Amino acid sequence: MQYLDLSDRADRLFFCGDIHGEYSSLVYNLTKQQIRDAIVVVVGDCGLGFDEWKAYDLKFNILHDELEQLNTLILLVRGNHDAPRWFREKLIDYTYVRALPDYTVIGTNGHQVLCVGGAVSLDRQFRISSMKYYEDLGKNVSKIYWEDEQMYFDEETLKMLDVQGIKIDTIVTHAAPSFYPLPFDKDYEHYCANDNSLDDEVRSERDRISRLYDYLISHHHPVRNWFFGHYHKSGHIYIMKQSFVCLISKRSYP
């Protein structure tokens, strides 16, 4: 478990939905809305791993001055459309942009935020077949699907929270727990029709995410807020006085 101590920064948290590599647009909107002295958490599908590292290095160096002027830090949580090793190995680790390994805790003056990435890609069969098609043609194609994309429940790491006396009040995942109303539509039925095990795996994953919640509640963590993306829809509901927010664009801390 990584603990990211940001207690020296202003306790001004924002959460942002899937950006799919649109970092320039994100920074543009931060500038336009004068979001300064902030911590912005992107809740997955950051678009890391589709290009070579040097392309991201160039991009983040170009954005450095704007983020420095805003004094705003962008933290990236792993989605299903991200290369897991980029987060596991912290390949993006700049002054104002950082990729967080799963089970990172962000500590601010007022909050302890647990970030656990990953999800099952609904369009994985299309991505797998596309990669195979171009590989069969002998073309060197970018990776667009990662077999280890799913969310992993790690109870041993969660136990470290209690050992270190960390109490989580906010959870960030890419997908939603099983008790959040499933925000899928007819597209989901289409994906399932072309992927026999997809529905079972999605439901299993949502159950694992719920186990994360159950563990924290049973160990007396004061969970009050949960942010996730993945579904490209916005939603906000309360369950037992706890806030659950599905993000399609940025939302400030309630």
TrEMBL record:
Gene3D superfamilies: 3.60.21.10
Classification via InterPro entries: Calcineurin-like_PHP (IPR004843), Metallo-depent_PP-like (IPR029052)
Pfam families xrefs: Metallophos (PF00149)
Organism annotation: Falsiporphyromonas endometrii
Tree of life domain: Bacteria
Protein name as it appears in the record: Metallophosphoesterase
Domain Calcineurin-like phosphoesterase residues, every copy: 12-233
